[in-house]
Design a protein that fits this description.
Elements lengths: L7 E5 L3 H13 L3 E5 L2 H10 L4 E5 L7 H10 L8 E6 L3 H9 L4 E5 L3 H125 L5 H9 L2 H32 L8 E3 L1 H11 L1 H4 L9 E5 L6 E3 L1 H25 L8 E9 L3 E8 L6 H4 L19 H12 L3 E6 L5 E8 L7 H7 L10
Bound molecules: adenosine-5'-triphosphate and magnesium ion.
The site of adenosine-5'-triphosphate has 21 residues, from α10 and α12.
């Protein structure tokens, strides 16, 4: 705070005597003093050397004290300088007017020196205090502003950090998801690879001997036929056989043998033919490791999968067999990964069998005739649709949303891994640019709808748009 000695008091009065008396008294009291003899000169002076207090006479030539005060209060640079009016003792109206114009006080003429000094001193002190306060306020405001800036910066930093943490977390979650998917795929692929290898191994081992038998059966039946004809010739040419021959013929029941032998041979032929078909199916199923896209008959894949699952479709004690109805459309050959497609058929059909078996175990009267219906058709000439429906218990709505989630299963521990549907979904959507949908009304069974493009080439509009996430209907030329 400034000391009283350094405070500058401006006395504005047109009466030299007043100026003199007041100047002397104030100078003696330690103030610095400036004087002005008119309102105009005072305003000019204040602008280049602002005082700490103004003693302002009212009655002056030119602009009077009130006007001077008014102008000073209008100017932002001078409005805070305290003004003390000097007025005659009786002038109450002037005192009120002066105060209402913004003056802080008034002193009455003739001057009482002690009173003037006391009032000046008080207002100078007040002024100094105000200035100090204003300065402090300013500093405080600055500090507040600086703090606000710092806080804003900190907030921004925190936000940036939070954003980065969020982004990293998202990246980690994505990585984890990818890893999980890869793991899931590995587990299923391995499962299927093992099954495929086993199937392929068995098929290979059985194939040669069965082919050998099947091929030779033709000769066996031809030779047998020849022998039988020869025997008949003997019987005709030599009707009186020796007793020894007759005994042997009776012993081996020649008549029955002659009738039965061709039947046995033909059923053997049917049997080996069936084995050959089974081997063909097994081989078709075990194409799982074919990594390339092939042009294949999808029906063959479905058939071979049904063949593998045949045992599970058969009737069991107290339970009827699961009937399979096929409504195969006239499908063209399709470009796909045959092994992977078989994997999908395997998963969907196994689930249908599981659902029907569960229903038969727990609610036998509910499914008196368990069945699976397989429908295939061409859609809009560029895609094929395979629908596999069962009449099991269906899938509750809250579960439907989750069946394609990896590891989601409703089956008891050790029975289901919960991978089948998520893998199948991936195979159909990501590998074949198709779609796999599940429609189910609880209590009314479930239907899985596979839709894939017929052609998988880069030029095909359907595949191209599917790769971009859209469904197109254009066809590959
Ligand atoms: N046809 C269906 N009827 C009723 N529920 C089904 C059917 N298909 C799938 N689900 C439900 O979807 C779940 C997930 O099927 P998903 O094939 O992924 O796994 P899972 O069959 O349980 O196990 P696994 O990995 O051995 O196949 C099943 O547990 C079952 O609840
Ligand atoms: Mg399953």
């Amino acid at each position: 705070m400034q000391t009283p000695e350094t405070n500058l008091i401006l006395i504005v009065d047109d009466t030299p005597t007043n100026l003199e008396v007041l100047s002397e008294a104030l100078t003696d009291a330690g103030f610095e003093v400036a004087v002005a003899t008119s309102g105009e000169s005072a305003i000019e002076q204040i602008e280049y050397d602002p005082p700490d207090l103004i003693l302002l006479d009212i009655m002056m030539p030119g602009i009077d004290g009130f006007e001077t005060c008014y102008r000073l209060k209008q100017n932002p640079q001078t409005k805070d300088i305290p003004v003390i009016f000097m007025t005659a003792l009786s002038d109450t109206v002037d005192k009120v007017k002066g105060l209402s114009l913004g003056a802080v006080d008034y002193i009455t003429k003739p001057f009482q020196q002690a009173e003037v000094l006391a009032r000046v001193q008080i207002h100078v002190n007040l002024r100094n205090l105000n200035l100090a306060l204003a300065e402090k306020n300013l500093r405080l405001e600055q500090e507040i502003t600086e703090r606000a800036i710092a806080e804003a910066a900190l907030q921004q930093l925190t936000q940036d950090l939070e954003q980065r943490v969020l982004e990293r977390t998202q990246k980690l979650a994505d990585a984890l998801c990818t890893l999980e998917k890869a793991q899931v795929q590995m587990v299923q692929s391995e499962k299927l690879a093992t099954l495929g290898q086993l199937v392929a191994g068995i098929a290979h081992e059985i194939n040669n001997p069965v082919n050998f038998i099947h091929a030779n059966l033709y000769y066996v039946s031809r030779y047998t036929q020849n022998l039988l004809e020869l025997l008949k010739l003997y019987q005709n040419q030599l009707p009186n056989a020796t007793p020894e021959i007759q005994a042997k013929a009776e012993d081996i029941d020649l008549q029955y043998l002659l009738e039965d032998l061709p039947k046995i041979l033909s059923s053997m032929e049917i049997g080996t033919k069936r084995i050959c078909e089974i081997i063909k199916s097994l081989r078709s199923f075990s194409r799982h490791d074919e990594a390339e896209v092939k042009v294949v008959d999808v029906h063959e894949g479905i058939e071979s999968t049904l063949m593998i699952l045949k045992r599970h479709l058969e009737a069991k004690p107290g339970q009827p067999k699961i009937q399979v109805f096929k409504e195969y459309g006239n499908l063209p050959k399709v470009e796909c990964y045959p092994g992977k497609m078989n994997q999908v058929f395997m998963n969907v059909l196994s689930n249908a069998i599981d659902a029907l078996t569960e229903a038969m175990d727990n609610y036998p009267s509910y499914v008196p005739s368990p069945m699976i219906r397989i429908t295939t058709e061409v859609r809009e000439s560029d895609r094929i649709v395979i629908k596999i429906a069962d009449n099991g218990l269906g899938i509750p709505e809250n579960i439907q949303k989750r069946i394609f989630d990896p590891f989601f299963t409703t089956k008891p521990a050790g029975k289901g891994t919960g991978l089948g549907m998520s893998i199948s979904h991936q195979i159909i959507t990501e590998l074949h640019y198709g779609s796999l949908q599940c429609i189910s009304q609880p209590g009314k069974g479930a239907e899985f709808i596979v839709e894939i493009p017929i052609c998988d080439c880069e030029q095909c509009d359907f595949v191209r748009s599917a790769k971009k996430g859209a469904i197109a209907t254009a066809m590959c030329k």
